[in-house]
Design goal:
- By secondary structure, the protein is an alpha+beta fold.
- It folds into 6 domains: about 10-65; about 80-245, Immunoglobulin-like, CATH 2.60.40; about 250-365, Sandwich (Immunoglobulin-like), CATH 2.60.40; about 370-485, Immunoglobulin-like; about 490-615, Immunoglobulin-like (Sandwich), CATH 2.60.40.10; about 625-653.
- The chain contains 5 helices and 41 strands.
- The radius of gyration is 55 Å and the shape is extended.
- Mean pLDDT is about 80; it is low at about 10-20, about 20-45, about 50-70, about 90-95 and about 160-165.
Length: about 650
Amino acid sequence: MTPEKQVSPVIRISQGERDASARATHLEAATRKFLVTTNERKQMSTKTNFKRIALVAVAALGMGLLSSTPSQAVWGGAPTVTTTNGTAGLSAVGGRTDSTTAGTVSITALSLNGALDTYTVTSVLKSSPTSAATTGALLFMLTDTATSTGAAHTVNTTAPYSVAANNFTTDSGTAITVKSAGNGYVNSQFKAFIETGTASLSRVAGTYTYTVIVTPFTVVAGVGSQGTAVTADISFTVSAAASSSQTIDASKSTAFLGASAGATADAAISALATASSTAVGVLSVRTYNASSVATPESVTVTISGAGILRSGGVTGSSLVIASNGGSGTSNGDIEVLPDGRAGVATITTSTPTRSFGSKTLSFYALAPATLVASVATPLLKVGSNSDVVRVTAKDSAGISWAGQLYIYASAAADAAVAGAVRATAASSALTCTWDAADDRHECPITSTTAGTAKFKVSNYATAALATAAASGAEVTSNEVTVTVSAGTPTTVKLEFDKATYAPGERARIYVTPLDSTGKALQSETYANLLAAGGISTASALTFAGSTTTADSLTAVSVTTKANSSSTSGAKAGSMEYTVYMPVNGGTVTISATGGTSLPIAGRVAVTASATVTDSGAAALAAVNALATTVASLKTLITTLTNLVLKIQKKVKA
């Protein structure tokens, strides 16, 4: 097939186009040759440029590889951080937080650069209850590195909280640094706490969340490189402890009337009724929660009769004290003042959770109306004797009068034996003391020789004052007589307080030194009144005294009592021991021998016996009595039955 452009010359000539065709053919050939040559040159130039660029890139890449750290040199990957949450307590210094309440932080990382690999641990507070004033730093305690599979690693810190305890703080820019000693997995475990060592800390209940930040770091050829930090949150739940509960436990709340604030028991108070701004008593009210922690609540107090109340400078017969009415640990201390009226004051107290029993105290008149004296110590020793004469004093309303009283010898002859006569100047030797617990005055007497003396008691110390009667008319007690003894013991006596006891019943044993006439002696300590071994018995007595040698049955020295007491069992002139009788019936015998304090004639054996009823015999006697009664009833029933039968026969007949 002939190409389109190869036309026959004959045709071109015939058509008159021969010259034009020749020119066109020559031009096309020339154009093609030029374009092909030009493109070849351009292509050669572009390839050369590419080769040059590639050479530069390879050279640059090679130099870069020589000067850069391989990517795996920054540890073997990001550290893994896991946490478990903890708890903490509430208190003024942060509350309890220890290994039993701590959270945990575990960090694992792969070291590929040996001792040049480290990671640091810091923390920041992320969130806390909005009302928390201060929270405390997050503390870490290293607990375990034994699970590491690589070489050992060390933990240190730039600012240890307590190096000795391995406690580290991670706040305020300080950090824990963990350093690898070789290639392998580095694991470190920490206990995490909320700081409690600062007194200014004051947490509130709620959740406290911290973010733990672990940053890897390595050094290669002297150039350090920091990896990407890994974070994990750890939270601590702070719960209100039972001790901080504001719920009142009524069973633990108290109200006591005492002479001063903070009384822990009620006191018997008698005070002069004359109006005064000086308190004569204080009612202390305390309310507590179930943990016995002071938890104040409001108090309502009312006084009736004599007297008036005062709290925080406010006085009245009825007061309501707010829950913050005390020092912060108490509800309040309410003072009681005299208001000029004599009589008994009754105080009622209540809080929203409890009503307390009534308290009473007495306000007495300026002067007593009656003074009744009695002798409490029947035998005085030569020298000082306390609580010899007791006086019951009353005012005109029958209220116990607790003012000052004085005792004096009735005459000079009495004063020659004991005490002193009334003088123009007051003497401390004449002063009696008020015993509020026993509601009486107690008067001492100093004696000089054996004999008897008579005494009286007055509300005035001297005759001159009595004559002036500035505080009302003088009131004088009845006259009493005291006996002063200077005898020495010649014998000793043992006795029980009863002749018969039930099994296991309490008993008292009395040891009494006697003079040559067989009479009891003045109160004194008698060394070696008994021979070695003291009091002995073959019976199974249980001793109820103290464990001191002086108060045991084996003691040889005896101190006798000056006064008798129905409460303690004390008897004037004797020493008493409390024991419990055996549980089995029979006769109990105790014995002792007079000691070297007695003359030779008195150093003999003395005994005392008492009977313990036989419970078995008593029961048998009761059974026998019952059997007799039953037999009698049986006979009676038989008789009645026979009588009924006879009556029936007569009725039928």
